[in-house]
Design goal:
Layout (H helix, E strand, L loop, with lengths): L4 E4 L1 E4 L6 E7 L4 E6 L4 E6 L5 E4 L7 E6 L2 E6 L2 E6 L5 E5 L8 E8 L5 E7 L7 E6 L5 E8 L2 E6 L5 E6 L4 E7 L5 E9 L6 E7 L5 E6 L3 E5 L6 E6 L5 E7 L5 E6 L15 E4 L14
Parallel strand pairs: 1-22
Antiparallel strand pairs: 2-25, 3-4, 4-5, 5-6, 7-8, 8-9, 9-10, 11-12, 12-13, 13-14, 15-16, 16-17, 17-18, 19-20, 20-21, 21-22, 23-24, 24-25
């Protein structure tokens, strides 16, 4: 992708999601995964056939990660669960040791060592109402970044030495030095999104180390240089609220973007809640899985 290039995404799937989130590429089984938080639904799309399936585990499911052909790891209000794709049953993994009144999970990701990083948020997004947790293979949950209003996207640099984290209502992307044991050091704000550009939501890192940040209210996904904080590219969508993005496909060169119909005038933006796609000319990074 050329510096400062602006491209337009095309509609990929007519989805009508109230609050689309958590797009993922499952390379092992060549399928796409995403969720609708507000509807409590999980979706998959087979790359070879285009077949779309859905499940309704409920309770504001916000994240779905591939575990096996017939199981996904999901996060929702109440904690982390396995979802059985054959019968739709869910099995508890951990409740994070917290009380869930007024709280739900939000975005998250697995690191290269198989740990799950998952954020929480209060339904009213009150200041200090959420936290970022890490869950290891022994299912121990520990707060690693406390007291945020809306914990959001998590991703890593290509070499895994830096973790990036979206604190949505602070409008910031925070970077940490990331050690193999999951220790975070040298916290610093590297990107601040101005109000005119929207609110930072989910994000992904590409193979060149640049960050792709979905912009709620910003009509697309910005490409940012984490070393300078500068926006150096943009993928436009024809709806206000882009929520998250991921790279996938055989060459990891397809960018898929989820959006939301929530808080949108559907008479003006009838495609809100659909999924969009573009090939911006750069590849993404392979996704990691948990070792639960």
């Amino acid at each position: 992708m050329k510096m400062h290039e602006r491209i337009v995404a095309s509609r990929w799937i007519e989805a009508g999601l109230m609050l689309g989130e958590s797009p993922r590429w499952d390379a092992a089984y060549e399928r796409w995964i995403w969720v609708d938080i507000a509807a409590g639904k999980v979706f998959t799309r087979e790359e070879s056939t285009g077949e779309i399936r859905s499940w309704s585990p409920g309770d504001h499911v916000s994240l779905a990660l591939p575990e096996s052909r017939n199981h996904l790891l999901i996060a929702q209000q109440g904690g982390i669960f396995f979802l059985d794709l054959q019968n739709g049953d869910i099995t508890p993994v951990t409740d994070l040791g917290i009380t869930w009144d007024g709280l739900r999970c939000n975005d998250g990701a697995a690191d290269a060592q198989g740990r799950l990083w998952i954020g929480t948020t209060a339904f009213d997004h009150r200041p200090g109402g959420g936290d970022l947790y890490v869950i290891d293979g022994d299912l121990r949950a520990e707060v690693r970044y406390p007291a945020v209003a809306c914990s959001n996207g998590v991703t890593w640099s290509p070499d895994g030495s830096t973790m990036y984290y979206t604190d949505s209502l602070a409008r910031t992307i925070v970077a940490f030095d990331f050690l193999p044991d999951g220790t975070l050091r040298h916290e610093r704000v590297i990107i601040t999104i101005p109000p005119a550009d929207g609110v930072p939501d989910g994000m992904a890192c590409d193979a060149e180390g640049m960050l792709w940040i979905a912009l709620w209210g910003g009509f697309g996904v910005g490409r940012y240089n984490p070393a300078t904080g500068e926006r150096i590219g943009f993928v436009e969508v024809p709806v206000p609220n882009a929520t998250a993005c991921c790279f996938g496909g055989e060459q990891l060169d397809q960018l898929v973007i989820t959006t939301a119909a929530k808080e949108t005038d559907l008479s003006q933006y009838p495609l809100a809640g659909d999924l969009f796609t573009a090939k911006p000319g750069v590849a993404g990074l392979p996704a990691s899985s948990t070792d639960f």
